[in-house]
Amino acid sequence: MSKLAFVDVETTGLSPSKAGIVEIGIVTTDTSGHVVDRYETLLNPLMKIGAVRIHGIKAAMVASAPTFELVAYDVLRRLDGASVVAFNAPFDQEFLTAAVERSEGTIRGPWTCALKASRRSIPGLRQYRLPDVAQHLGLGIPENLHSALADAELCAQVFFSMGAKVQTRPVRAKPSTSFGVPPLPRSATNDLGKSRRPVAKDRRLDRTDRPIDEVVSLLHASFADQLFTLAEVKALSKLVDSLGMSQGDVLAALNQFLDEQITEILSDGIIDAEERQRLRVISHHLGYPAPYIEKLLKRRAPSTSPGVLQPGLNVVFTNLSEERTWEVTSSCASIGLVPRPNLSKTTDLLVFENSWDTTKGRRALELGLPRMAIGDFMAEVARAGNAGQSSGTHMSSLKTVAGRVSRMGSQAKSRLLQPTKPEPTENLPPAGWFPDPRNRHELRWWNGSRWTDHIADGDRVGSDPL
């Protein structure tokens, strides 16, 4: 153990499932109690602020504060490898763990509770609140009690004054991204105001003939390091005023900057975690609501239609009931499509019912895969099926699938017809519908290693053991 991290959070309520964190303070010390680092920031919980009379934090103070996901990197790198201590540790741990999980990071390991340590070290106190224990030990009580940093520092003083020992292993913490935004301590709230957007003196929303390219270029330069500091905000505001821009001009510059960022991010058809975090930083600093940016991404995302359905396409389904899935996969077999259980880079199409906003759907968006509503998909299947029947290609598409079986060697064929002893081989076909090897039905489902009981005859799907 080389370091200790004393943590305190101020919250909007008492339950992590219903409340959020409005401030976090972390004091890092060595094993002798010497302070090596202090960190504090207000957080925007995106909900009502809660008990202002306790923590003294007002809604206006967190209006320009980052959300937790934007500071998760700075918080978790301070906790990783440290023995974490808090006064009433279960409370702080539950809130922080919930916030970390929502930001798609991880934090593992037990915390040391200074409250429990004080009850063991100082029996007989009437109350064991942090100021009561500190006063008993002869420590000074800070004026800004219930400030997260002040409480974390007082907790550290109490812990070392009691001679308490850490008996837990270091915490392991890992953020989902490798950058974030600067913290916003309480002392900075008066200077920053309610927004980090560059503001024009001219409040009109109509456009003038002022050029906006210089402002857009400065925005790109300011966000190059994924940070947008107060100095950069002031520089942009100064430029805006020097150019005599209206508020409408500023908004046009911001929109052009956001449009160019989205164009760059979607250029490879994939939105990875780092790029999504970049958009969150822009959303936070420039005041764009997150749902608005998501709407822009959906509008600019690759086409949701792969064009004409052709035999051999790999199709994955999401949000479908099991009964509907079997009905649809049976239709897939009729035109030679290959249903797959999971998404991969070889997937050609994701088919969804009601909404594509599922785990598979979001993954498809990140991979740049086309998506199609179930109604459109079934219409395409029917169109392809009718075209195939009229031109004689319907049986051809089935032969395309069945041909994978006929092209296998004799040993692979014999193994394929013996489902009780499957032996994986490179010659075996991937999962999909194939002509029934026993000729009892039109099609039988092959799971990639053996035949299953699922069968299909025309529009009917069912079960028939081999």
Major beta sheet summary: 5 strands, mixed
Total helix count?
A: 18
List how many beta strands DSSP finds. Answer: 15
Principal-axes geometry comes out as: flat
Structural class: alpha/beta
> What is the CATH superfamily classification of the largest domain?
Ribonuclease H-like superfamily/Ribonuclease H
Overall pLDDT confidence = 77
β content, as a range? 15-25%
Number of discrete domains: 3
| Main sheet strand line-up | 3-2-1-4-6
Helix proportion of residues, in percent? 40-55%
| CATH fold-type name of the largest domain | Nucleotidyltransferase, domain 5
CATH architecture of the largest domain: 2-Layer Sandwich
* Contiguous runs where pLDDT drops below 50 for at least 5 residues: 191-195, 303-307, 389-427
Rg for CA atoms: 30 Å
Distance N terminus to C terminus?
A: 61 Å
The top-level CATH class of the largest domain is: Alpha Beta
How would you describe this structure to a colleague?
The termini are far apart. Residues 191-195, 303-307 and 389-427 have low confidence and may be disordered. The strands form 4 sheets. A 5-stranded mixed beta sheet has the order 3-2-1-4-6. The chain is an alpha/beta fold. The chain has helices spanning 52-55, 59-62, 68-79, 89-102, 114-121, 130-136, 148-161, 189-192, 213-222, 230-242, 247-265, 273-286, 290-300, 322-334, 359-367, 374-391, 393-406, 410-416, and strands at 4-11, 21-29, 35-42, 83-86, 106-108, 112-113, 172-174, 314-318, 338-340, 349-352, 371-373, 432-435, 443-446, 451-457, 460-463. It has 3 domains: 4-188, Nucleotidyltransferase, domain 5 (2-Layer Sandwich); 195-300, no CATH class; 314-463, Rossmann fold, CATH 3.40.50. A hairpin with a 4-residue loop joins strand 13 and strand 14 (451-457).
